[in-house]
Design goal:
Blueprint: H1 8-16, H2 22-37, H3 43-70, H4 92-117, H5 119-134, H6 148-172, H7 189-212, H8 214-219, H9 225-253, H10 269-281, H11 285-315
């Protein structure tokens, strides 16, 4: 489909990149599963965390579309999904306004989360938005300096899962409005460990994206980790992240409090194996664009199964 045939509504959907939304929702789902296991599931904070995560994801997508165009990183040789700013589908100013508006909505949702979660959530929320903008924006976009993978691992895994669990825990334990620090008795190890699969598979999405774009990124001076590592070590990174995502459920299963239910994510292994074969053998957009969506599907399936496995001992 040529850019001239794309409707305005379709262009905005393309800019929002709904295929990336599993990276926003998956860690929040895992946070719910762990909260159910611990008897601290709180629907309203969980829904607010989900809405905030999805809005930050979409806002970051708008930011990347806009700033990659401004920085000259999107060229005609790029093999990825169509970028609406570079493709002339939506004027740059409108995409920038959409970014600001979406982040503004995320901050509005965040007001409730800050009220119940206090200073820790305020720090997490603001840093998430700032990190999303500076990924490709600002004078020194860190996504162009090999730090994008670390950003995704931290914010779409560690921060998202532990933050989701935290806001539920403080509500269910009656901590009170706007705590200024982490409350006594708050579990830390289990939420961090549970966050690793979502962190790993979310990063896998970026690895596939950057392997596909390695040549064009290098030509435009965008030094992603894939540009720095090359194809072989980028594939090693990808496989290491996949292995981590399936090793963590095994670790939980060894704990009698969780048991064999925690092995539920292993049911998604065939999907992970299939997409891994593609990443190990292909570098072209014809293969890796569908692979991107399959990694997102793997992330979502793994997270649903992991959440169900974590919650099962408390619900059955």
């Amino acid at each position: 489909m040529s850019t001239a045939e794309v409707s305005k509504r379709r262009a905005w959907v393309m800019a929002a990149r709904p295929q990336t939304l599993p990276a926003g929702s998956a860690p929040v789902i895992v946070g719910a599963g762990l909260a159910l296991h611990d008897g601290v599931f709180a629907p309203l904070p969980w829904l607010a965390a989900l809405a905030g995560a999805l809005l930050i994801q979409v806002g970051t997508n708008f930011a990347n579309d806009y700033y990659d165009f401004v920085n000259g990183a999107d060229t005609e040789d790029r093999e990825g999904f169509t970028r609406v700013t570079a493709g002339g589908l939506i004027p740059p100013g409108q995409v920038k306004l959409a970014m600001i508006g979406t982040y503004g909505l995320a901050m509005a949702v965040g007001l409730y989360l800050v009220a119940v979660g206090g200073l820790p959530i305020l720090v997490v929320g603001l840093s998430s938005i700032i990190a999303g903008v500076l990924y490709t924006g600002g004078p020194y976009p860190y996504g162009y300096r090999g730090l994008g993978d670390l950003f995704v691992f931290v914010y779409f895994g560690l921060v998202a899962v532990t933050g989701t669990y935290y806001v539920q825990w403080v509500v269910e334990n009656g901590v009170g409005a706007f705590p200024t620090g982490l409350p006594t008795g708050l579990p830390v190890v289990e939420p961090l460990l549970a966050s690793l699969p979502a962190a790993a598979l979310s990063t896998c999405i970026l690895v596939v994206n950057n392997v596909r774009d390695r040549e064009t990124d290098a030509a435009t001076g965008k030094r992603t980790l894939a540009v720095m590592l090359g194809y072989r070590w980028s594939r090693v990174e990808f496989l290491s992240l996949v292995v981590l995502s399936y090793a963590v459920p095994v670790a939980f299963a060894l704990d009698p409090d969780y048991g064999a239910w925690a092995l539920a994510p292993l049911a998604s292994l065939p999907l992970a194996a299939s997409v891994s074969r593609t990443v190990l053998t292909r570098t072209d957009g014809d293969a890796l664009n569908p692979a991107l969506e399959r990694v997102g599907q793997t992330l979502f399936a793994h997270s649903l199964l992991f959440a169900a496995g974590l919650a099962a001992p408390a619900l059955l």
